[in-house]
């Protein structure tokens, strides 16, 4: 589901500027949908962005009071939980004086345009992202801190949730941070019974492999955003949560009916590691996989 940076850096100019500067990369992932996220830290220096060919959302996770953007009207200082939006082709100069960490979300104009057309059924050619510098946005704060940062970005299962969070971020940006924003999305219900069965069958057959939100949406011939919303109406949970439940369910069967090792079972159920299996299993079942297996062998 995630591609290596080498395949994506053509349209990642802000990312490249930071890599060649004083910033330190903590983690990153670029999904097959062409969008990416990265967590950075920095403590000193100056960064200049000169007309990047993509949009960047920047969110200050920790620190940043002595980070500033120089503008013609004077310096603007940042701080924890502050949001910056750096649209395509913008210019900006930033100075750093103290340690801080920040989150970046990279996306292209085509993502914004396609999202506006798919979700709002309106022409998206002229949609334009506003430039923001150190503003407050409670929705972005909650989405990043509660839904994006806690995820294991290397896990194909968690990448499903990350992809869904990206869709929610785009929806919010289109509604709140674009010139002439779109307000009312198309109405949506649940998936049809036929599509529910098709999606369930696909997930069941693919549990040991990685697959994307786009793969699931394609089964119903829907956009990622509409599929995720309609899936939740039909199943009462997100696709990410449903897939985790099915993987844990299969693990329970294998633990009680086979002698496979925990490492083998984690791979057969599509978990990224034995540790990931143990974490999700205990969270949903209340026991560790080993304890559950012992309890099933008690006669």
Describe what this molecule looks like in 3D.
This protein has 299 residues and is of the alpha+beta class. It has helices at 13-19, 109-120, 138-148, 156-176, 193-206, 213-219, 224-235, 239-257, 262-268, 274-285, 289-296; strands at residues 2-3, 24-31, 36-42, 45-50, 55-62, 68-71, 74-77, 83-86, 91-96, 100-107, 128-129, 132-135, 178-179. β6 and β7 (74-77) form a beta hairpin. The longest helix is centred in the middle third of the chain and has 21 residues, at 156-176. The radius of gyration is 21 Å and the shape is globular. Mean pLDDT is 90; it is low at 4-8.
List the helices and strands and how they pair.
Layout: E1 2-3, H1 13-19, E2 24-31, E3 36-42, E4 45-50, E5 55-62, E6 68-71, E7 74-77, E8 83-86, E9 91-96, E10 100-107, H2 109-120, E11 128-129, E12 132-135, H3 138-148, H4 156-176, E13 178-179, H5 193-206, H6 213-219, H7 224-235, H8 239-257, H9 262-268, H10 274-285, H11 289-296
Antiparallel strand pairs: 1-2, 2-3, 3-10, 4-9, 5-8, 5-10, 6-7, 6-9, 8-12, 11-13
Helix pairs in contact: 2-4, 3-4, 4-8, 6-7, 8-10, 8-11
């Amino acid at each position: 589901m995630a591609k290596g940076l080498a395949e994506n850096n053509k349209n990642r100019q802000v990312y490249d500027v930071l890599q060649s500067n004083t910033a330190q990369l903590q983690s990153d992932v670029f999904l097959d949908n062409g969008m990416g996220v990265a967590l950075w830290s920095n403590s000193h220096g100056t960064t200049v962005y000169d007309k990047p060919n993509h949009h960047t959302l920047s969110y200050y996770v920790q620190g940043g009071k002595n980070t500033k953007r120089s503008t013609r009207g004077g310096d603007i200082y940042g701080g924890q939980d502050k949001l910056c939006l750096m649209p395509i082709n913008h210019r900006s100069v930033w100075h750093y004086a103290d340690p801080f960490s920040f989150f970046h979300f990279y996306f292209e104009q085509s993502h914004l345009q396609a999202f506006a057309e798919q979700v709002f059924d309106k022409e998206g050619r002229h949609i334009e992202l506003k430039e923001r510098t150190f503003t407050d946005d409670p929705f972005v704060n909650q989405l990043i801190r509660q839904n994006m940062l806690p995820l294991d970005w290397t896990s194909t299962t968690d990448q499903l949730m990350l992809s869904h969070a990206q869709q929610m971020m785009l929806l919010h940006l289109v509604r709140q941070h674009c010139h002439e924003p779109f307000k009312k999305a198309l109405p949506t219900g649940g998936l049809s019974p036929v599509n529910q069965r098709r999606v369930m069958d696909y997930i069941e057959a693919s549990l040991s492999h990685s697959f994307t939100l786009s793969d699931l949406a394609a089964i119903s011939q829907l956009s990622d955003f509409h599929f995720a919303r309609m899936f939740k109406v039909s199943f009462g949970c997100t696709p990410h949560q449903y897939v985790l439940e099915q993987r844990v369910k299969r693990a329970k069967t294998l633990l009680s009916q086979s002698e496979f090792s925990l490492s083998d079972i984690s791979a057969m159920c599509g978990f990224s590691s034995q540790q990931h299996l143990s974490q999700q299993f205990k969270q949903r079942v209340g026991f560790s996989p080993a304890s559950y297996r012992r309890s099933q062998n008690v006669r």
